[in-house]
Amino acid sequence: MAKRLFLFLVFAIAAAGGVFARGFSISAGAGEYFTSDFGGGIESSASGKTETPYAGGGGFIFLDAAYAEFSLGIFGAGGTFEGQSNKSSMTLMGLDIGLLGKYPFSVNDRISLFPLLGITYRAMLSAKDADKNQYKNSGGGDAGAGDFSALWFKLGGGLDFFVTDKIYIRCTESYGMRLANGFEKNADKSLPGHGFEMRFSVGYRF
Hints:
- This protein has two helices and twelve strands.
- The protein is mainly β.
- The strands form two sheets. An eight-stranded antiparallel beta barrel has the order 1-4-5-6-8-9-10-12. A three-stranded antiparallel β-sheet has the order 3-2-11.
């Protein structure tokens, strides 16, 4: 996991640096977001199917350079991890490190729209059941929170509404799919993880 996170950060910094070098306007801001994973889980001949959906929300900060946005967010979520013979109410906490590419175009003096395409590395920090115990995997052992970390690929769009020449409100919505996480890779079959994300933020253009 550490290696994948390091490579992602190198890519994000290099891409953002390339954009900044072109002299585009820079802005920064903060906001709230709702996130979800409607799929995910494992399927094996021994234990059957175990599904791991969740939904929740949190806050984030971002740095924007017209055609790219780098963000860092933290969230809490809840869900029901359900297998053939057991069901666990889960609480999760995670850290999102994201890089979005976008192409803005103006509708009028105050509104601009943009399609977006991006990647997010979601590092899970905690995954516990209703009794505050670490989630057990199909073999009865602890599944560490990091086993639910994964790389996401996202597609969506957004809107910027400029309150003044410097201050704007940003709303985005995206649909994402992720790679199999560590918990799923050891199973006979992994169930695809996917979900929607909505963000609302306020930014300031320097």
